[in-house]
Each structure stands twice: as C-alpha cells, then as structure tokens.
Amino acid sequence: MLDNRPQLPTEIARRRTFAIISHPDAGKTTLTEKFLLFGGAIQMAGQVRAKGEARRTRSDFMKMEQERGISVSASAMSFDYGKYRFNLVDTPGHSDFSEDTYRTLTAVDAAIMVIDGAKGVESQTQKLFEVCRLRDLPILTFCNKMDRESRDTFEIIDEIQENLAIDVTPASWPIGMGRDFVGAYDLLRDRLEIMDRADRNRVAETVQISGLDDPKLAQYVPADLLAKLREEVDMARQLLPVFDRESFLNGSMTPIWFGSAINSFGVRELMDGMGDYGPEPQIQTAAERKIAPEETPVTGFVFKVQANMDPKHRDRVAFVRLASGHFERGMKLLHVRSKKQMAVTNPVLFLAADRELAEEAWAGDIIGIPNHGQLRIGDALTEGEALRFTGIPSFAPELLQGVRALDPMKAKHLEKALTQFAEEGAAKVFKPMIGSGYIVGVVGQLQFEVLASRIEQEYGLPVRFEPSHFTSARWVSGPKDEVEKFVNVNKGHIGQDSDGDTVYLTRLKWDIDRIERDYPKITLTATKQMM
Ligand code: GDP
User: Fold this and answer.
1) Residue 268 is assigned to a structural domain of this protein
2) Could you tell me which residue ranges the Tr-type G domain spans (predicted)?
C-alpha cells in the first residue's frame, strides 16, 4: 500500500482518519469516549453521553434514538494524540442505517473493530466487516470487556479468522479474565500492563520488562496466571502469524488488542497502534484519475449531508473528506456538479467539545461545510479540475412505502421535507408517473419511523407511512429511444427519483427478470453511483 510512495508532508503524514465498527452494545461509545479523553478533547469520560443526553432532549427523533439505544447520525471528531491527528468518524450502529455507514466508510482509511470478549463476532460486526473488506481497509481489532467472563483467547482469535477470513495477530495477550483479569502482556513492545480497577479513567500502569522470563513478572502476576500466560504466549507465537505491517495495510491481517474500555484498559495501546502502524491518508479514486494526498491543489468529496443539525437554522452540513492539498478558510472551490465557484468561508472542524470554525485542514481531514442544499452526497470540490470521485454508491431501497400528510393542506410541505431527506441520503423518494403522492424507499423498517418522527419535529407535519403496492425499485438505463419506449409501455410502474432519474417500480422479482429478457437493451440496476 505504501510501496514506492513519496514521503508525505508531515502535516498529512500524521493524520489518521478512521471509524469504529461494532455490534450494538460491544462498547463503541465507551471506547470513543476514552479516545476523546486521552486525546484531550474531553476532560472526563461520560461527556459523550452527557452531551448526547442534552442534545436528545431537543427532539423526539433524538429521544427515539435514546429509547432504541441506537445512534442515528454520524459525526466526525478531530483531536491530537501524541504527534498524530486523529479524525474519528462515527458510524451509526444499527443495521437499518447500513447505507449511511457504507458511505461513511468511503471517507476513512482504516477501521477499529470492537468485539465483546464474551460474544465474539456478532451479526452486525460481520456485516460491517464485509463492507470494510470491499475497500480493503486496514482493521485493528479491540476485544472488549475482558474484565468480565469472556471466551478463551485462542477461541476468540479462531472465530475471527474463521468467520471473517482474515489473519489475526495478537498485539497483546490477556492475563486472566473476569474477576481475575490482571492486565495484558504487550507482545509488540514486551511490556506488562496492569489494570487499575479503582479508577476507571486512569490509564493502566505499565511495567517495562525484558520478556516473559523476566523475574519482575512474578511481582505483578499470580503464579498460576503467569504459568498460563507463558504457555499461551508460547503457543500463540508458534501458531499465529507475527505482525506484518504490509499485510495489515492491505487488509489481510488484523492485530488484536485485549482490554476493557470502561476501565480505560488497553485503549492507549490501541491508540498507539493506530498512530504508529495505521495508514496515512490514502490515494483516492476519481473517474478521471487517482488523487494523491500530497498533491497541492485541494480536492475533496461529500460523503454525508446532515440537515437541521441546529434546529434554529435550517442549514445543512455537508461532510467533506479532503482527498488532497492544504485547505484554508475562505478558499474558493469549484463545485464540480454545478460548475459554480463556492467560497468556503465558514467550514467547521468537528472538535469533540463543539463545532469549531476551521482555519485550515489537510488531506485526510473531514470538514463540515454549511450550505443551503447545493452540496449533495458524492459531490466533488476542487480548485478547478473537473473530477468525479467514484465508489460512493446509492443502493436500491429494500422497503417501499407510500406517505401522506395527515393534513391534506400541507402536501407542499411534505414534498419539501421529502426532497430534503432524499438529498441528505436518508431515504429514496420516488414520484410515480401516474397518480399523486410519493413513494419512499429505505433499507430498514426503522428508517420509516425515524423519518416520520423527523418530518413531524422538523416540519411540524404529522405524516403516515402506508403499504405501497410496490416492493422493489430499479434504476433504468439504456439508449434514449429504448428507455422512452420502455417508459411508455410501463407507465404504471415508472417513477422518478429526486435527481430526475427514471426508476422502475414493481412488486415482483419475476417482473425484473422478464424485463431483462424482453428489453435486452434496457439495464435495470440496484445501485447507482452518486455523482
Ligand atoms: P455501544 O452500543 O457499542 O456503543 O456500547 P456502549 O459503549 O454503550 O457499551 C454498552 C454497555 O457495555 C454499557 O453498559 C457499558 O457501560 C458497558 N461496557 C463498555 N465497555 C465495557 C467494559 O470494558 N467492561 C464492562 N464490564 N462493561 C463495558
């Protein structure tokens, strides 16, 4: 991955842009909190939640988020850790938001996979891992909750190797578990880390030792656990691959750390791992060419749009991953899709405490650009070059429902709300050619509830979602005259998405197969590149 690459400018080389993936409840929020704590972004753990709490009182949508225990909106946070600048991009944890998550993962260079030591690889971890795999993202694994009864270390490693088909190399080895958990042996640096149970926000005590034969070990580790540790590490060294940075960077090997996020244990070692071994900002792909981070002109792409972050202003924030260059506030950038210049005067850097005005940013950083709807997912910003970044897909929704305003006088408002959510990427909205109303498509059932709740909160508009007689949507492409012919014959099944592109709506998989046979020049696709 890094072969034959020039050395990056220091400011770029020190950046680590990553996401944390996990199954709900494995400890992602707790780990995030500790990252922010050790990154100096918050003073005390518990703030992420406390701040979340305060935010949640503002709307039902947020309350729902709380009741369901899911986090719906992704955000990005930047902080310094040692000589590194970490950009942590938060991913929604619930499977109903996988599309959002997928897009978030197009903006990062690496991922941390958190698993619960008692539960191993759970369904959502597996799904998210597959998405990372599609992009060959380097993955660091954190096996959490070692202060509880957990599985045998070899069993956990085996499960990851088997289920995820990735080589696993232990970066640390746990000593004891549950009530007897003492700490871990740092295999990469030959150190002993002792967990402090008394103070959850304190970092573990580290003892420098010369190896597993060091007599000092006996002062810290009970004899039976020490014997077991020596035996296990010996076996691990024989059976498991050693850390190889190249294999890690190309996504075929994951180092695993064992720890307890809530006890701040193993977290710093994981952060050090991300800093010291993690990837620098990577080359990004556009349809025209590849973009290297060290190129001087600024380029970037929008991977997420979030509306109504501040209920007082009906603004939207477009999250932009900078692919290259050194950005400075006030810069004029070309919005490639509209071919218009945009003066970026009030970009936001997401420092954990609050949004902060960004004076400068480098390749690898995530900046937020407040706008009135011009910026959409997939859009490119450059200093003049007409680039189209690739790899940000739009998925065909798996569930379709009709929607109507309970107050028929407010149909216009509904249209506005739906258009906005479509642009935000929160749902697909189709206008059928025949009949009135809209059909809304999502990836997971829960999204309908979130949408209904948001439309009511943000637009004061109670709505009802109801079953639609369509169950699938496919984008239609082909030669213009063929598409026209096709549309004319199938009017009852045709709709337009929010970009004006033609979709074919149906309830039968059989229909889709039939069309592929009857109209060989027409292509029906389940994804479309958003550009
Ligand atoms: P998320 O859903 O993945 O964000 O998980 P949370 O961070 O909210 O954690 C889920 C639950 O596990 C919470 O009750 C945490 O307090 C608890 N938890 C997190 N880390 C640890 C840990 O290291 N040990 C123990 N025993 N509990 C933990």
Assistant:
1) yes
2) 13-282
Ligand 1 lined by 150 (C-beta under 6 Å) = no
Nearest residue (CA) to ligand 1, atom 16: 262
Report the CATH number at residue 350.
3.40.50.300
What is the residue range of 495's domain? 396-529
Pick the last residue of a domain from 324, 349, 382: 382
- 78 is a domain residue: no
pLDDT of residue 351: 62
Checking DSSP bridges between strand 110-116 and strand 139-144, what pairing results, if any? parallel
Domain boundary residue, one of 278, 307, 342: 278
pLDDT digits (tens, 9 = 90+) for 425-476: 778 899 999 887 899 988 777 778 888 888 888 888 999 999 888 888 899 9
Q: Which of 30, 128, 270 to mutate to test the pocket of ligand 1 (most atoms within 8 A of CB)?
A: 30
Q: How confident is the model at residue 355 (pLDDT cuts 50, 70, 90)?
A: low
Nearest CA to ligand 1 atom 15: 27
- Work out the angle between the directed axes of helices 446-459 and 411-424 (0-180°, nearest 10): 120
- Indicate which residue's Cα is closest to atom 11 of ligand 1: 25
**Separation of alpha carbons 72 and 255, rounded Å:** 29
Question: Does some domain include residue 85?
Answer: no
Claim to verify: residue 185 and residue 298 sit in the same structural domain? no
ipTM reported for the complex, 2 dp:
0.99
The 10 Å CB-count burial string (b at 16+, else e) for 205-234 is eebebeebeeeebeebbeeebbeebeebbe
